Amino acid sequence: MPAQILSGKEVADRILADVAKEVDSLARSGCRPFLAVVRVGDDPASVAYVRGKRKDAARVGILSEEHTFPEETGQEDVCALIDRLNREEGVHGILVQLPLPPHIDEEAIIERIAPEKDVDGFHPVNVGRMVLGQETFLPCTPHGILMMLRHAGVEVRGRHVVVVGRSNIVGKPLANLLLQKREGGNATVTVCHTATPDIGSFTRQADIVVVAAGRPGVLTADMVREGAVVIDVGINRVEDPSSPRGYRLIGDVAFEEVARKASLITPVPGGVGLVTRAMLLWNTVRAARLAQERRGG
Ligand SMILES: Nc1nc(=O)c2c([nH]1)NC[C@@H]1CN(c3ccc(C(=O)N[C@@H](CCC(=O)O)C(=O)O)cc3)C=[N+]21
């Protein structure tokens, strides 16, 4: 039986509707959530993602501003802007679009962001809090994946989830969230990566496979069990002269063949990416609410 499609748009729309309600209630108490986005250089994919994030923000009534630097900008200039945004009371969330150019120290930039404005959940303080199971800003993609599974009624408790990829923004935090002893967690988790000799031998044992490897065709039909749930986090641009933009987006999963075997699968585009954007705005509203509470509002 061909797989059902788990639509990111459906999940994102629901989350954005909740976010919009929360924005309204904050606005009535005199606080308008505000997101500052920082971008260095003009990587076309980054330009496109930031445009998407700001479009969603506008749709739910969140204000946003974009700060762009030329590719050759130095570390100090980016730090100076972050320092200023940290001090600005009206700025609730700060997102520095990654990747940064190679001459900029990404870790130092992330650590510069005030943890209470780190709506990406990338600051070491927030990562530590997440691993310990404390309240914090959860990283948007992993959190979005949990929301998609919940929306689809997929219980992860006691199931075997195999994550392919160990990045700091997806694989590592997702594996952590899945194994936490609470609602949405309690899974048995295996993480495969570039040094895993036979990834298929692990993914074939999975009830749920999440692929965040950053390379097309990493997961093929022979690597999944009949009826498995497949979450595709990859977004790869491939040349396509027949498309108006000259390229199209594909995931890391060989979609057609895997969809014939899986019970449920996320598409690309229209999948995890859209929910990632919604979770960013969710975090931004939360940052605004927490800031208001700190000021005694
Ligand atoms: N500081 C930081 N935070 C991030 O959250 C972050 C980042 N840097 N750098 C890059 C990755 C990637 N990412 C995506 C977000 C939305 C879509 C998305 O909206 N995708 C749409 C289509 C996008 C398009 O048409 O180009 C879709 O899949 O349907 C994709 C990818 C966030 N990231």
UniProtKB/TrEMBL annotation:
Which stretches make up the Tetrahydrofolate dehydrogenase/cyclohydrolase catalytic domain?
A: 6-120
Instruction: Enumerate the catalysed reactions.
Output: (6R)-5,10-methenyltetrahydrofolate + H2O = (6R)-10-formyltetrahydrofolate + H(+); (6R)-5,10-methylene-5,6,7,8-tetrahydrofolate + NADP(+) = (6R)-5,10-methenyltetrahydrofolate + NADPH
One Pfam family this sequence matches: THF_DHG_CYH
Q: Which GO terms describe its biological process?
A: L-histidine biosynthetic process; methionine biosynthetic process; purine nucleotide biosynthetic process; tetrahydrofolate interconversion
A Gene Ontology term for the protein's cellular component? cytosol
Pathway assigned to this chain's UniProt record: One-carbon metabolism; tetrahydrofolate interconversion
This entry's Enzyme Commission designation comes to 1.5.1.5, 3.5.4.9
Q: Give one GO term, molecular function aspect.
A: methenyltetrahydrofolate cyclohydrolase activity
Name the keywords, alphabetized: Amino-acid biosynthesis, Histidine biosynthesis, Hydrolase, Methionine biosynthesis, Multifunctional enzyme, NADP, One-carbon metabolism, Oxidoreductase, Purine biosynthesis
User: Which residues does the record give as NADP(+) binding sites?
Assistant: 165-167, 235
Q: Which domain of life is it from?
A: Bacteria
Do you know which InterPro entries this protein is assigned to? Aminoacid_DH-like_N_sf (IPR046346), NAD(P)-bd_dom_sf (IPR036291), THF_DH/CycHdrlase (IPR000672), THF_DH/CycHdrlase_cat_dom (IPR020630), THF_DH/CycHdrlase_NAD-bd_dom (IPR020631)
**Sequence ranges assigned to domain Tetrahydrofolate dehydrogenase/cyclohydrolase NAD(P)-binding in this UniProt record:** 139-289
What this chain does, per the entry, is described as: Catalyzes the oxidation of 5,10-methylenetetrahydrofolate to 5,10-methenyltetrahydrofolate and then the hydrolysis of 5,10-methenyltetrahydrofolate to 10-formyltetrahydrofolate.
Which family, according to UniProt? Belongs to the tetrahydrofolate dehydrogenase/cyclohydrolase family.
> Oligomeric state and partners?
Homodimer.
Q: What is this protein called?
A: Bifunctional protein FolD
* Naturally occurring in which organism (per UniProt): Winmispira thermophila (strain ATCC 700085 / DSM 6578 / Z-1203)
